[in-house]
Design goal:
By secondary structure, this protein is an alpha+beta fold. The chain has eleven helices and 72 strands. Helix 4 runs antiparallel to helix 5 (824-853), helix 6 (862-870) packs parallel to helix 7 and helix 7 runs antiparallel to helix 9. It is elongated.
Length: 1021
């Protein structure tokens, strides 16, 4: 939040915030001390700037405070070095004015500007800002020819001295009264404004010629009263004041100004005068009554350097031993320090006359109309006062151990048993009155008495455990509830009693207090929550409903709320929220919790005596808390409505600190990021809560509680906006909060251009893979087409060379038989010839089909396949065929094996058909390579036919093509005298399957030799 907006919000809210309540004693304020022993340097000054930070000047430099930590502030380097910070002022424009031994400087936006020559050592004493925003200051080292009082004009100074009516040579304390006069101390007390001045010397006040000089400080009151002080305590000196133009030593009850030396005076917003002494701690004067607070009370030091009030009304005191802070709390404590007569508080009772009675040891402390008294005088009672009660007639009943008294018109009257004996050995823990005006008494032995005809008669003995205390609670129908510290309650009415069990057999469970609500429901404070009984069922209100602690000491019904005092503080439950719980026991309630930061103390007494909580006629609520009594005023419960200024203080990226400036650029490859933030509320910094969100990373607001750091890891490069908001101790949220825009630089491989390049390369690679795949598929398909085409070509050769020629011959025979058609003998002979040719065509067609269907893929025995081929019945009867195998049979690849078979089958068939041989030898040899030899002793093959093949026939050409496809070598040797020999040799690494290699690898090797690339997705053929 910009400083101007922070200051505006503070000024708008100042009417809803007051200084520490002057009607309380100093000991009733919350007091926090930071001592030199804790590492705090000795301080000299304190102020608050418009951005909300507190600044402390110490002997070792400046400290900036956010309510949690003091951070040393490095002043920009200057020459000579700054020495002795004397005074600090936070101006309305957001700047920090610094008065030092070297002169006056102004710090704003991290820049330091000097308004005097530091080398002159013009020591600054006090700095003041008037309503018009003009900066005034006094100085104790004055260059020759200049004056001690100065004001800032532009970038320079204008000082006032002897020529302007100021006769003194130096200036100390500085103040401004309601008429615009400036008062400052020196060897005299000076009053000055343009055109009017006056000086008052100490010997004129003290009437002593040896009074000396040295007015250390001065302060102006709202009614025109001026107070001044010296560092020397003496008649007419010390602290003195003017009243009606007359100056005299300032003396009020509890304070004698002539007996203290002081160099700091301060007046807060409630017009309380605070006097910081040289050796006697702190005094506060309000409405003419002084109160002292010193080291015995917890003050950090004896000598007071400065008193200051911040924007929220907290009071800061700088001493020679540390820094102290005083603030109001919603819950106020009354103890022996505040005037109680003893430290044995038992019960508390608010009377109809507006007074408060506190049973405390052997006395009763009475507070009424701001006055405190004790009843009776000490030593008059010989027993402890325990229970208190006021009946409808205004008579006060007092239980003193085993004695019962009433008190009326200043006289005590004792009530005994009808036989004149005491009630019993034991204490009276509760006294009450039923709806029929009967007085009931309960003792810690669980005996219940009723007062009748001036005597206390025993009515019943209630069941209970051996622990002391108990309670009584009358309803509106003449009945009375009795509790005796076990898990059962007794209800007595019209002479009959019944017990109600709470079903809590745990030995640690105990009942602490009972009251009857307006609807006659019973409210029971227990060690396990607040219970309610409506004559039908039990309900329990505990931590599941939002209660900050299950151990409930007492419960009190106010006009519009139920108040519960539990182990972690005082809780207010509004009537609508309480009604919601009554109708739905598991409801989560909204409660106002006043904890230790609000002044509530969780202490409890050794006994639970009735009543432990009460309400006085002025609406204030009082609770017994051990040896003390605590009070809260629901009508004036303090609420801090000032929005806490929120600041982002530091950015730590990979352990390197960065200032949170706008447009912050963080380095690339960032792993760990920490963002430190703060909210400047000093009332109860521990109760400040935060929410933050990193836009660009977080989807919603994060709830870190009171933690003042946000942590992120592995943020991606980019632009981010961090937002943080906070609430003060009373839950008032500053939703504007603070923001920080920053960016994380990308590494070279995180840049957009690199990503585009990667996308481009990926696209090219994908396109290349796609093209390669398409080509692979095309090659495989082409290979399959080639195989199919080769098979079709072979079938064409088969049909052409055999089957079609036979059919053609059959046609010629048939044509011959039909011409002429009258020759029956000729026709018969032609039909016989046709039958022979048709039978041959059938055999040739079957042979072609067998060549297609007979595949060695079904068996791995190539030798058996060739043996069947030599015995298929097509061989002429004049030809003798032999078949031999050399070597052991080996596993062969099916495709290569089929090709070898078809080459051999074609060679055998050609020998049957064309060789006219009488012998055919077929040899299959298994060695390193596979060799097939087909040899006949026929007529041979014409050399041109062997080289080029016969026109229209494809047998030899097909054999050579098959051998080439499987990487084999086909050799044909033929002569007229020796016949024909065809040899096919196939390398073993192609045809044989090795155990170490898969069939697919063998196929790949084969296809590589064939000059083809396999389709890895297609099954091998």
């Amino acid at each position: 939040m910009p400083p101007r907006l922070v200051l505006l919000s503070l000024l708008l809210c100042v009417t809803s915030v007051w200084a520490v309540d002057p009607n309380r004693q100093i000991t009733q304020y919350a007091h926090t001390a930071w001592r030199v022993q804790d590492g705090i340097d000795v301080g000299t000054a304190v102020t608050q700037t418009a951005d909300g930070y507190l600044w402390f000047a110490t002997t070792n430099g400046l400290l900036r405070f956010d309510g949690v930590k003091f951070v040393p502030y490095e002043v920009p380097p200057i020459t000579p070095a700054v020495r002795d910070f004397n005074f600090l002022l936070g101006a309305r424009d957001g700047s920090l004015w610094i008065g030092t031994r070297n002169g006056l400087a102004r710090l704003k936006d991290g820049k330091l500007q000097w308004y005097s020559d530091p080398a002159q050592h013009t020591g600054i004493t006090v700095i003041l800002e008037d309503p018009e925003g003009t900066i005034w200051f006094t100085r104790y080292h004055v260059p020759r020819g200049e004056g001690p009082l100065c004001r800032v004009e532009g970038n320079g100074l204008h000082c006032y001295g002897e020529a302007d009516g100021i006769p003194v040579k130096y200036g100390l304390g500085l103040a401004r009264d309601g008429e615009g006069n400036l008062w400052f101390g020196s060897s005299a007390l000076c009053r000055w404004r343009p055109g009017s001045s006056a000086s008052l010397y100490l010997n004129e006040i003290s009437k002593r010629p040896d009074a000396g000089d040295g007015v250390a400080d001065v302060v102006a009151g709202p009614s025109g009263t001026i107070w001044a002080s010296t560092e020397i305590a003496a008649p007419g000196m010390g602290v003195f004041s003017s009243s009606g133009g007359k100056w005299a030593t300032y003396v009020v009850p509890g304070f004698d100004g002539s007996k203290v030396g002081s160099h700091t005076l301060f007046m807060d917003r409630e017009h309380s005068l605070w006097i910081g002494t040289m050796m006697d701690g702190l005094y506060r004067v309000y409405h003419g009554i002084a109160e002292h607070y010193g080291t015995a009370d917890g003050l950090s030091g004896r000598a007071i350097e400065l008193v200051y009030e911040d924007h929220e009304g907290n009071l800061w005191v700088v001493t020679d031993g540390g820094i102290d802070m005083f603030r109001d709390t919603a819950v106020v404590t009354y103890s022996e320090r505040e005037g109680l007569s003893d430290v044995s508080v038992q019960s508390v009772l608010g009377l109809e006359d507006g007074s408060l009675w506190i049973a405390n040891g052997r006395t009763i402390d009475i507070f009424k109309d701001g006055h405190h008294s004790v009843l009776p005088a000490k030593g008059e009672f010989d027993e402890s006062v325990m229970a208190l009660f006021e009946d409808r007639k205004g008579i006060v009943w007092i239980g003193r151990q085993n004695k019962l008294f009433d008190y009326e018109h200043g006289r005590f009257r004792e009530f005994k048993r009808p036989d004149g004996s005491k009630l019993e050995e034991g204490g009276i823990v509760a006294v009450t009155e039923d709806s029929k005006a009967n007085i009931w008494v309960l003792t810690d032995h669980h005996h219940v008495f009723r007062v009748e005809n001036g005597a206390a008669r025993l009515v019943l003995t209630a069941s209970g455990d051996s622990r002391v205390s108990g309670g009584l609670a009358p309803d509106h129908e003449g009945g009375i509830w009795i509790e005796t510290r076990s898990d059962t309650l007794t209800y007595y009415k019209d002479g009959s009693a019944r017990t109600i069990s709470m079903n809590r057999p745990d030995s640690s469970f105990s009942i602490l207090e009972i009251i009857v609500d307006s609807d006659d429901a019973l409210l029971v404070a227990t060690s396990d929550g607040l219970f309610r009984w409506d004559n039908e069922r039990w309900q329990v209100l505990d931590s599941h409903n939002g209660l900050p602690g299950n151990f409930v000491y007492s419960v009190l019904r106010d006009n519009d709320a139920v108040w519960v005092r539990c182990q972690n503080g005082l809780v207010r439950i509004s009537a609508p929220e309480f009604d919601k719980w009554r109708h739905q026991s598991d409801s989560k309630l909204v409660m106002d919790v006043f904890d230790r930061f609000d002044g509530a103390r969780p202490g409890r007494g050794s006994f639970f005596i009735q009543p432990s909580a009460t309400k006085t006629t002025d609406g204030r609520l009082w609770f017994v808390a051990g040896a003390i009594v605590q009070m809260i005023d629901p009508r004036q419960t303090l609420q801090n409505r000032i929005l806490p200024p929120v600041h982002i203080e530091e950015v730590v990226a990979d352990r390197i600190s960065y200032s949170p400036r706008p447009g912050l650029h963080l380095p690339r490859l960032l792993r760990d990021l920490e963002i430190d933030y703060s909210a400047l509320s000093f009332v109860a910094p521990q109760k400040v809560r935060f929410r933050y969100k990193l836009e660009g990373r977080d989807e919603g607001w994060q709830e870190p509680g009171a933690r003042r750091q946000a942590f992120y890891s592995d943020l991606h490069p980019g632009n981010y906006r961090f937002r943080v908001m906070a609430c003060n101790n009373d839950g008032v949220w500053n939703e504007e909060g603070a923001t920080l825009d920053f960016s994380i630089a990308p590494a070279w491989f995180q840049t957009t251009s690199f990503r585009l390049l990667c996308v481009g390369i990926g696209a090219v690679v994908a396109w290349a893979i796609y093209r390669l795949r398409v080509r692979q598929i095309a090659r495989v398909i082409s290979a399959r087409f080639d195989v199919r085409l080769a098979e079709r070509t072979r079938m064409a050769r088969e049909l052409h060379d055999t089957f079609l020629q036979t059919i053609q011959g059959s046609k010629l025979v048939a044509d011959d038989a039909l011409d002429p058609s009258t020759d029956l003998v000729r026709m018969r002979h032609a039909m016989k010839q046709l039958s022979v040719w048709l039978e041959q065509a059938t055999r040739e067609g079957r042979a072609a089909l067998n060549s297609l269907r007979t595949s060695t893929t079904q068996k791995n025995d190539l030798a058996e396949a060739f043996r069947r081929a030599t015995e298929n019945g097509l061989m002429p009867g004049s030809m003798q065929a032999t078949f031999s195998v050399v070597g052991d049979a080996k596993e062969m690849h099916p495709i290569v094996r089929d090709e070898v078979y078809r080459i051999g089958y074609e060679a055998i068939r050609n020998a049957y058909k064309h060789s006219q041989a009488s012998r055919l030898d077929v040899e299959l040899r298994y060695r390193q390579d596979l060799a097939l030899r087909v040899r006949d002793n026929g007529v041979g093959i014409d050399p041109s036919t062997a080289a080029l093949g016969k026109d229209g026939h494809f047998g030899l050409r097909g054999m050579r093509e098959r051998a080439a496809r499987i990487g084999g070598k086909l050799t044909l040797v033929s002569s007229v005298n020796s016949g024909t020999e065809i040899t096919v040799v196939v390398p073993g690494d192609i045809v044989f399957q090795k155990r170490s290699a898969s069939p697919f690898e063998k196929l790949k090797a084969l296809l590589r030799r064939m000059g083809r690339t396999p389709n890895t997705d297609a099954p091998a053929r």
